[in-house]
């Protein structure tokens, strides 16, 4: 849409300032007849618990109503905003939902989020971010004034009159959403993305509730774990320094006669000197992948050191600083479309980084009087691959309830299932199952399995001779992705790729990347969609049954709830049933399995 098609004058928007309850009630009678409204809020901060709401804006296509939240009881908006028959258009709906829920107990219903819509229709494209500033610029050819701090919102006291500039800003933020909506909705329909959009918009409420609730953490236990990690890291540091000391001529001592560390284990140049010049290992870098390939005890110790250091620096006291001063809980930011495949991302802090086997996980606990219900899909990405490929051997394993990795090992190595060793054949089969699904070749599998490239290639041949339809599907979907320029999940979510011109000097490399992603994205994306359905179904079931329960975390194919102890068993049953119902939305022929546990700790 060209700039000339943009009908709203943002320098002089049509708006009305509402500062009396009498006028608010009159306006509500007017706008409740609309089929579609734009909604926004302005406040003094981004934290729903700490912000002071200044305005709530309600917009029709031709007029904005800027309601002064300091002078009017915005709870009176509850009936309007919870009316499921009116579509509400918002930018970053999750934020406004959380603010209005925390401040006024308003749960906005029937939302269209322009930020999520933009991510849906541009997944994989390089179109900048999905802020209102970027969307308005890309779609409408206009530049919004988003120098938020210059509007001096924090100077608006309890009764002070807003400036004309502040009111125009607030009005513009809702009026601009209509032309953006028109373009996005048309594009969503054209690309066949309605089901994806419905899924993402229905998910806003469960995700917002998850963020509002937050997770409870045992601070003393966390610090105790942290101290243990630091002790182990320090002991390992000393061991490494003692091992490499003879390789260096000069041994230095500090003022107290203690030997100084030979090198800084966090310095890449010093580590490269150690690995290449001192140990002769020919390491191109010090990354974890390289260290894991180096057959040397020092490299193994450095890898172990890196693990301790990563946990300590990524979390440590930093995570405890995220405990909210109002709630006493940690409230991460869950990003619904955190990857082009549709997968979630998590930040501030990123709880997805905590390894499953880590003792740090067990520090996340149910508050006294509550329980945690943790649910985890079983081998969900491999089940999705079975759904796509319809391979008879895969189907046989799932329909018979056999462990897929064990059965794969039995077929590949030609040995009875009872003879498959968990740490040898099964582990190799597991590596191959996941590796081929992610488009890995013989070289990559050889590194992972610790075998020669020829051996890895031989294992791949055995695998594909066993699962012939898997190979056929992987080859077909890779070619189709290059041909069409996008991949698609079982729900219909798309991820676009820029297919290079054959004259591009990087053509082969870029095509290989697209083919790899073309294999993986439908699997990873369909799995993510399944978890999203599960979150929606669980959230709806909790509300329907009136259970004292809240979603608190999701990590890929895992869902965690905190539940009042009296409702724990009901919640466990509900979660298992809804996880399986969500699975059947995606998998029509492959059975869905999930493990559900009730415990005091996050222990999956």
TrEMBL record:
Residues 357-567 form the DNA-directed DNA polymerase family A palm domain. It comes from candidate division WWE3 bacterium CG08_land_8_20_14_0_20_41_15. Residues 15-189 form the 3'-5' exonuclease domain. Belongs to the DNA polymerase type-A family. This is DNA polymerase I. PROSITE patterns: DNA_POLYMERASE_A (PS00447). It catalyses: DNA(n) + a 2'-deoxyribonucleoside 5'-triphosphate = DNA(n+1) + diphosphate. GO terms for molecular function: 3'-5' exonuclease activity; DNA binding; DNA-directed DNA polymerase activity.
């Amino acid at each position: 849409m060209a700039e000339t098609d943009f009908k709203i004058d943002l320098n002089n928007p049509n708006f009305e300032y509402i500062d009396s309850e009498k006028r608010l009630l009159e306006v509500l009678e007017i706008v409740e007849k609309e089929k579609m409204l734009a909604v926004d809020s302005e406040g003094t901060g981004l934290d729903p618990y700490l912000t002071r709401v200044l305005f709530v804006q309600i917009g029709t296509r031709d007029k904005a109503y800027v309601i002064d939240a300091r002078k009017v009881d915005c709870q009176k908006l509850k009936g309007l905003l919870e009316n499921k028959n009116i579509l509400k258009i918002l930018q970053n709906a999750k934020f406004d939902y959380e603010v209005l829920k925390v401040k006024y107990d308003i749960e906005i219903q029937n939302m269209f989020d322009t930020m999520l819509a933009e991510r849906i229709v541009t997944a994989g494209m390089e179109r900048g971010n999905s802020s209102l500033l970027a969307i308005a610029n890309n779609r409408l050819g206009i530049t919004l004034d988003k120098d938020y701090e210059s509007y001096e919102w924090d100077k608006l006291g309890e009764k002070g009159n807003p400036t004309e500039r502040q009111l125009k800003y607030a009005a513009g933020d809702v009026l601009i959403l209509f032309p953006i909506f028109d373009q996005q909705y048309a594009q969503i329909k054209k690309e066949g993305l309605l089901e994806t959009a419905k899924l993402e918009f229905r998910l806003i409420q469960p995700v917002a509730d998850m963020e509002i609730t937050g997770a409870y953490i045992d601070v003393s236990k966390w610090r105790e774990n942290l101290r243990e990690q630091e002790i182990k890291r320090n002991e390992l540091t000393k061991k490494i320094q003692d091992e490499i000391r003879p390789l260096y001529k000069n041994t230095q001592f500090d003022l107290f006669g203690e030997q100084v560390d030979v090198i800084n284990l966090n310095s890449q140049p010093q580590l490269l000197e150690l690995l290449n010049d001192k140990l002769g290992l020919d390491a191109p870098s010090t990354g974890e992948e390289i260290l894991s390939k180096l057959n040397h005890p020092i490299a193994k110790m450095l890898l172990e050191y890196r693990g301790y250091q990563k946990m300590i620096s990524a979390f440590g006291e930093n995570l405890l600083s995220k405990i909210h001063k109002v709630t006493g809980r940690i409230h991460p930011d869950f990003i619904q479309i955190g990857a082009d495949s549709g997968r979630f991302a998590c930040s501030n802090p990123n709880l997805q980084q905590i390894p499953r086997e880590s003792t740090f996980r067990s520090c996340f606990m149910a508050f006294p009087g509550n329980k945690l219900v943790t649910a985890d899909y079983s081998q969900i990405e491999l089940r999705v691959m079975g759904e796509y490929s319809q391979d008879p051997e895969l189907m046989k394993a799932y329909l018979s309830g056999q462990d897929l990795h064990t059965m794969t090992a039995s077929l590949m190595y030609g040995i009875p299932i009872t003879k498959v060793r968990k740490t040898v054949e099964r582990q190799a089969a597991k590596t191959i199952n996941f590796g081929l699904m992610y488009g890995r070749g013989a070289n990559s599998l050889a590194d992972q399995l610790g075998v020669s490239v020829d051996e890895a290639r031989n294992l791949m041949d055995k695998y594909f001779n066993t699962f012939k339809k898997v190979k056929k599907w992987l080859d077909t979907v890779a070619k189709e992705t290059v041909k069409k320029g996008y991949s698609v999940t079982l729900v219909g979510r798309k991820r676009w790729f820029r297919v290079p011109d054959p004259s591009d000097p990087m053509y082969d490399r870029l095509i290989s990347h697209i083919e790899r992603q073309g294999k993986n994205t439908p699997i990873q994306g369909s799995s993510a969609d399944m978890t999203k359905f599960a979150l929606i179904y669980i959230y709806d079931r909790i509300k329907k049954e009136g259970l004292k329960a809240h979603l608190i975390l999701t990590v890929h194919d895992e869902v965690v709830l905190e539940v009042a102890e009296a409702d724990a068993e009901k919640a466990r049953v509900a979660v298992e049933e809804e996880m399986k119902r969500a699975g059947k939305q995606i998998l029509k022929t492959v059975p869905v399995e999930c493990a559900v546990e009730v415990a005091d700790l996050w222990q999956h």
